[in-house]
Design goal:
GO molecular function: ATP binding; glycerol kinase activity
Distance between the termini: 64 Å
Radius of gyration: 22 Å
Pfam families: FGGY_C, FGGY_N
Number of helices: 18
EC number: 2.7.1.30
Pathway: Polyol metabolism; glycerol degradation via glycerol kinase pathway; sn-glycerol 3-phosphate from glycerol: step 1/1
Helix content: 25-40%
Largest sheet: 7 strands, mixed
Family: Belongs to the FGGY kinase family.
Shape: globular
Length: 518
């Protein structure tokens, strides 16, 4: 078969939408479809999804993408070799093995309902907030799946009894989808990949297995947890009842890890994905580097059962593109997300306005769940263009905070080559955002020709497992850089430093605001 007759499918299940993309062997998308699904906000700080709606969104996207590829003249039915999956991480689902139904809505990664559980554990455990860092690399935080699972066990009627009977099982979204795709109640496979498992707070980074000590401390039953596998191996075939059947699922990565593969990030290389949140990962090779500056030690990827593990330092930002959605949906300042670039371009600066989008607290490197959103420096001169530009700057300042911490932890500046930040995600189509990012960093920003690298990374991992790709092809970053757009800084160093200092002052003003009266 020629390169144009071999195809890999990629399920990209994000925080607000699901996509299915079909790539040919040259990584060109030949058919795709995207569906948005419902966000539920039952209380302030709570965010939920309907797991059944997510499954249905995958079904719809598969069917529509196949139709589009066929209409474009591609014989996908005979040339489709494998399916990869990438997903929003940490989002937690528990369901019944016997009925296949969720026992509660999925609790989304940014949900902050577990803050009281976090405070309780911090007080009770001898290591406080960092009690589990030695094993899993993660602090006690509302962000991670283990805390969400504890909340479910404490609050969902009948769940503990179902766990004792062996009927209730746990998973992140990858696990939920694979279970459904491979049979569901009819012997569906209960697995998760190493990258998603690393975000639960329950996996030991060294052994790559569920950590018995952590499970015992938290009172979580190991029998409800999925089997941990690598990011690139044949997991199982898609069963009947789906638009695609009999095709192996052979790649699975959390979205940020998939983006690292899609961006060809080897040791010493970093990428930032701008979506609902923003996520910056630096590949640290086969070494776990512990952060002293508020970052997380995590898995980057393991591309095969016998392949070495690459680890990463990660800085997670809860609110990035979600702040633009807030301007659109809650304030009505813009009617579509794409309008923010034109609006913000009407002014050359924010006019001294600083916006800190701590809607549910702040993640890396601050880790302050008592922070709340603020907008300061407002004068009678301030207009909506200044606000829009301040929102864009807030995304870039947060990325800068994380990268500054990464440089300190990994001593990245000892490398004399110019540091290039690789960027991806939907928000990177905004040229003004990318220029602001380069200006605030004082270093170049590289945007690839294909900005949707999460889906591409999952396709690469799936193709690698079935022999469609080699690792050398996946990590041939030189050719990709030739097709990229590079944004170079133009802001003067003195002004850059003054703006960074002002941002830090603004961030400090957002602390200790969680108990403001309604």
């Amino acid at each position: 078969m020629s390169d144009s007759e071999v195809f890999i499918g990629s399920i990209d299940q994000g925080t607000t939408s699901t996509r299915f993309i079909i790539y040919d062997r040259l990584a060109r998308a030949v058919g795709s479809h995207q569906v948005e699904f419902t966000q539920f906000y039952p209380q302030a700080g709570w965010v939920e999804h309907d797991p059944m709606e997510i499954v249905e969104s995958v079904r719809i996207c598969m069917a529509r993408a196949l139709d589009k590829a066929t209409a474009n003249g591609h014989n996908v039915d005979s040339g489709l070799k494998a399916i990869g999956i990438t997903n929003q991480r940490e989002t937690t689902v528990v369901w019944s093995k016997s009925t296949g139904l969720p026992l509660y809505n999925a609790i989304v990664w940014m949900d902050a309902r577990t803050s009281s559980i976090c405070r309780k554990l911090e007080k009770e455990l001898p290591g406080g907030r960092t009690h589990f860092v030695e094993s899993c690399g993660l602090p006690i935080s509302t962000y991670f799946s283990a805390l969400k699972l504890l909340w479910l066990l404490d609050n969902v009627e009948g769940l503990n009894e179902a766990v004792k009977k062996g009927d209730a099982i746990f998973g992140t979204i990858d696990t939920w989808l694979i279970w459904n795709l491979t049979g569901g109640v009819e012997n569906g496979l209960h697995v998760t990949d190493i990258s998603n498992a690393s975000r639960t707070m329950l996996m030991n980074l060294k052994t790559l297995e569920w950590d018995k000590s952590t499970l015992d401390t938290l009172g979580i039953c190991a029998k409800m947890l999925p089997k941990i596998i690598s990011n690139s191996e044949i997991i199982g075939n898609i069963t009947k009842g789906w638009p695609i059947t009999g095709i192996p699922i052979s790649g699975c990565l959390g979205d940020q890890h998939a983006a690292m593969v899609g961006q060809s990030c080897r040791k010493g290389e970093a990428k930032s994905t701008y979506g609902t949140g923003a996520f910056i990962l630096l590949n640290t090779g086969e070494e776990v580097i512990k952060s002293n500056h508020g970052l997380l030690s995590t898995v980057a990827y393991k591309l095969g059962p016998k392949a070495p593990v690459n680890y990463a330092l990660e800085g997670s930002i809860a609110i990035a593109g979600a702040a633009v959605q807030w301007l659109r949906d809650s304030l009505g300042i813009i009617s579509s997300a794409s309008e923010i670039e034109e609006l913000a371009s009407k002014v050359s600066s924010t006019g001294g306005v600083y916006f800190v989008p701590a809607f549910n607290g702040l993640f890396a490197p601050w880790w302050r769940d008592d922070a709340r959103g603020i907008c300061i420096g407002i004068t009678r001169f301030t207009n909506k263009s200044h606000i829009a530009r301040a929102v864009l700057e807030s995304m870039c300042f947060q990325v800068k905070d994380v990268l500054d911490s990464m440089h300190k932890d990994a001593e990245a500046k000892s490398d004399k080559t110019e540091f290039l930040l690789r960027v991806d995600g939907g928000a990177t189509v905004n040229n003004l955002l990318m220029q602001i990012q380069a200006d605030l960093l004082g270093s170049s920003v590289v945007r690839p020709a294909d900005i949707e690298t999460t889906a591409l990374g999952a396709a690469y991992a799936a193709g690698l497992a079935v022999g469609v790709y080699t690792e050398d092809e996946i990590f041939a970053s030189g050719e990709k850089l030739k097709q990229a757009t590079i944004f170079k800084p133009v802001l003067e160093e003195e002004l850059r430093k003054k703006k960074a200092d002002s941002w830090c002052r603004a961030v400090s003003r957002s602390f200790d605001l969680a108990d403001l009266s309604l």
